[in-house]
Structures are given as C-alpha cells and as structure tokens.
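Hi Y.,

Following your request, here is the sequence exactly as I used it, all 347 residues.
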Amino acid sequence: MVEGFAPWEELSWPGSIIAVGEAELEVLRPIARCSAPSVNPTTGEQDVNVLGLLAGSFGHECMGVYARVRRSGRIASGDKVVVGSQRNHMIVADALASKGALSLPSWIRHATICEVSPCGEDTAHILIEDDGSAFGAEIKALAGQHLRVHLPGPEWRCYTITETSENGLFRITVKLPEGVVSNWLHKAQPGDRIMLTGPFGNFVYPEASPKSLVILTAGIGITPALSFLKQAALETNPPKVLLLNVSRAGPEMRLWDEIEAIGALIPSMVTMRYVTGDTDGSAPSVIGGRPDFKKIDWNPSLRPIVIFVAPPSLSPTLAKRCKKPACPTTEYSMRPLFRPRRTQVYS
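Below is the corresponding structure, written out as tokens. Let me know if you'd prefer a different format.
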C-alpha cells in the first residue's frame, strides 16, 4: 500500500520502473479484482458487493496494479516511492502475453481531451488521445464499436467511436442533455484528463463486404451509423446503402451534413430522413411523420443486411415492422442504446 498519489494514478504506470527503498519493481498491468474484497474478514460472509459497486459506479473492475521485482532489496514503511517517467514496452508485452491477463481494451487507462468542437447548440465532437498507445501496443477500433469514458468519480458512460486513427486518437460525438458525463465533456477543455476502457462491442460493420446495407436509426442512434458509412465508403466496391433515420425535430440532426459528405463517396447511397415533430427549420429533404416500411425500396433482390440502432423502447418496434416480406434480408443486427445503471452495494 502506498499513499501520496492521485486516485487511479497507478493506472498510468504499466511499463514503468518503480524505485522503493533498495528495490526496483516493473509495473505490469492493472488488477481486475476478485471477489475476496467482498468478504467480511470477521464473519467470512460476502456482505458488500465490491465488484458490482466498481462495475456499476465506475464502469470497470480494476483496482491497483501488478508488479514484479526487477532488483531485490530491503523496503520499509515510510520509504519514498519514485515512479520512472519512461515506459518499457517489453514489460507491457510480457504482461499482455501472461496467462489470465486482461486484453488491452479492458485495461482502464488515462486519456487526454484534445479538442471539443461544437456542431450545433446541443452536440459536440470530442477528440481524445488515448494514453494506451504509449504502452507500445496498438489499439484498434472496428466501425460500430464503442468506448467507455470514465470520470475520476463514480460516473461513466459508453460512446460510439465515430472516427479513429492509428496514433491513438478517437473521436466521439456527445449530445446534451444526456447526463453527468456528457455535460462534463461538453464543458471540457483541451488538456483535461479522463479515463477510458475499450473499444468494445460485437455490433460492427460486416466482415464480409455486403452488396446491400440498410441502416435504420432513431435520434442519436445516427452516431453509430456514421462509423458504418465511413467504412462502407472505404470499400473497393461500396455497397448499395439505404440510411433511414427518425428523429423528433428537424434541427436535431447535427451530423447530417457530415453524413451527406460521406454519401457523396458512396454512389448508390440513398438517405431518408423522417421527423415526427415540428419540421420548421428542417431541410427540404425532410419527410414529416413516421416511415411506411411497405413503401420503401429495400433492394430485395440483393438480400440486404439490416442494422438497427435505436433506444431500447424503439428497437423491438423497428424489428417487428421490418421482419416482413416487404424487407427480405439475409441478416439482422440490432443495437439498443443503454445508459449505465447504479449497482446495489449489498449482496
């Protein structure tokens, strides 16, 4: 046990050398806690759900780090702990290859806010630099995957990655009002520090290039669609794409200009934008009301892959309406959008 460091600071130590007393330690990786801390040492009963509390409140189950002895020596209470500023990538590589080790996306790690770019009154693009790239291991994200953003306190939230690069930069899109984390990110300044886990998720762009792709979204569900469209535009032979979005208000869709720019790179892309509420201020292409799926051309001869991205209350409705002869498909993929829930402390 050591003191004098900021909460969670040890999560930036993997690959570092720690000097304490006469000894030196190599920091390997974060510790995913077992159930032992949940046991009352007096009664032997599990009375506090520590893992549930960590996962529900902080979005991860890590606490502390593993280290191995680099140079043996005597240490004593009160010895100063000095953390080296350089990281040895081989130490991290050994840790990732060890039996039972967490995969790198599951390591909770620090990150830096690089840029906050408003795209409307209630939406902003957040550019994040992931410290995980400094561990010497590449962190790849597939189109459709998400990050967990963790604040220093017990607050976290998942955000779809809308853009990624090979140098550890991720872009997410955040809407207001959407809770504590989103509000914090909207007010963030370049240089502010957060923590990340991920990328996570099996809801990704099809591995085998599709001939036809139907993407159905509702509200902010348009965000994951953005990453799918960017991937489709990179294909040698881009698929035929139908993007259909339903939102409550016309001006709500701040990402539409970017979507249309990507659509220019996909020759056979069709967009359909429905607004169920007030259409004042909407573009001429906006359609008032709800979509009639029977009148939509799904390219049935191509047996399209259909992807749903919507809040939980709408996902079953969309699936029920589309799983009819009017929309013959080869594959369905559904992603409800959830918010984290608090976990009960006592088991």
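The radius of gyration is 24 Å.

Thanks again,
Q.
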